[in-house]
Amino acid sequence: MIVSSVQNLWKLCAGVRRLSTTGPIRMADSSVAQLRVSYRDKGDVLLEDNLESKNPHQMFSIWFKKASERDDVRQPNAACLATATKSGIPSARFVLLKAFGESGYTFFTNSESRKGREIEENPVAALTIYWDALDRSVRIEGAVEKIDETESTEYFDTRPRSSQIGAHVSRQSTVISSRESLSKQNEKLEVEFAGKQVPRPSYWNGYKIIPKTMEFWQGQSDRLHDRIVFERAEDAAEKQIASHAGENGWVFYRLSP
Ligand SMILES: Cc1cc2nc3c(=O)[nH]c(=O)nc-3n(C[C@H](O)[C@H](O)[C@H](O)COP(=O)(O)O)c2cc1C
């Protein structure tokens, strides 16, 4: 009897701890729980019959242009890139999309970074963009390939000099003793490269994701959001998904929000 009362008291305390504002789960923190925005209204939905394009690359291009034209979208090319180790441990971070189209969606990074190592051992990735001002998001998934080194060099040569030197300074994702050590290395390299062109470090490369699927999401205020997924026709056929014919070997279908 005493034992079960003590157990009940312990469970009760654990429950209170979970609900307390200093505990790990802040259920009572209504300021976060109540954050909610209105998206589009019912008159402005994404319909299969009037998609901007039936080719996902063209559709991306049209959506990207719309995002780029807005003053309230400061970095329309900022995208969250998810990679994973071979055993499936995921990691995600933002990168800047630097080119896109039929041949792939390109970003640049340090091949020795965490993402670089994960891509090396498991060459697949997912890339997600969210344009808050447009109530729109795009998700891209597919295989990842390193782009041609000459293309990486061409792009590297267009970067501001400080970024070029920065690429030599930063051994991305390694532990460093202090910010000061970075600054000192930066000063040292500025002297070393003075009057010279800064070469692209061999570990600084472009990668492209070749999409297998591309999802276009548009938010609706009633939470019945639009989700249109484009997939290669052969992949959709294998999964026996009922789909609509797209262009260039793509089909598309709607997902429940
Ligand atoms: C908006 C934004 C854009 C970024 N763009 C890049 C990029 O294009 N390439 C890159 O290597 N890191 C970029 N970063 C930094 C990465 O998010 C990340 O800190 C870094 O690449 C190390 O990631 P990793 O340790 O997972 O490899 C960006 C960060 C932000 C917030």
From TrEMBL:
Its EC number is 1.4.3.5. Keywords: Flavoprotein, FMN, Oxidoreductase, Pyridoxine biosynthesis. Its cofactor is FMN. GO terms for molecular function: FMN binding; pyridoxamine phosphate oxidase activity. InterPro entries: Pyridox_Oxase, Pyridox_Oxase_CS, Pyridox_Oxase_N, Pyridoxamine_oxidase_dimer_C, Split_barrel_FMN-bd. Residues 71-187 form the Pyridoxamine 5'-phosphate oxidase N-terminal domain. One of its GO terms (biological process) is pyridoxine biosynthetic process. Pathway: Cofactor metabolism; pyridoxal 5'-phosphate salvage; pyridoxal 5'-phosphate from pyridoxamine 5'-phosphate: step 1/1; Cofactor metabolism; pyridoxal 5'-phosphate salvage; pyridoxal 5'-phosphate from pyridoxine 5'-phosphate: step 1/1. Residues 204-257 form the Pyridoxine 5'-phosphate oxidase dimerisation C-terminal domain. Homodimer. Belongs to the pyridoxamine 5'-phosphate oxidase family. Catalyzes the oxidation of either pyridoxine 5'-phosphate (PNP) or pyridoxamine 5'-phosphate (PMP) into pyridoxal 5'-phosphate (PLP). NCBIfam families: pdxH (TIGR00558), PRK05679.1 (NF004231). HAMAP family: PdxH (MF_01629). This is pyridoxal 5'-phosphate synthase.
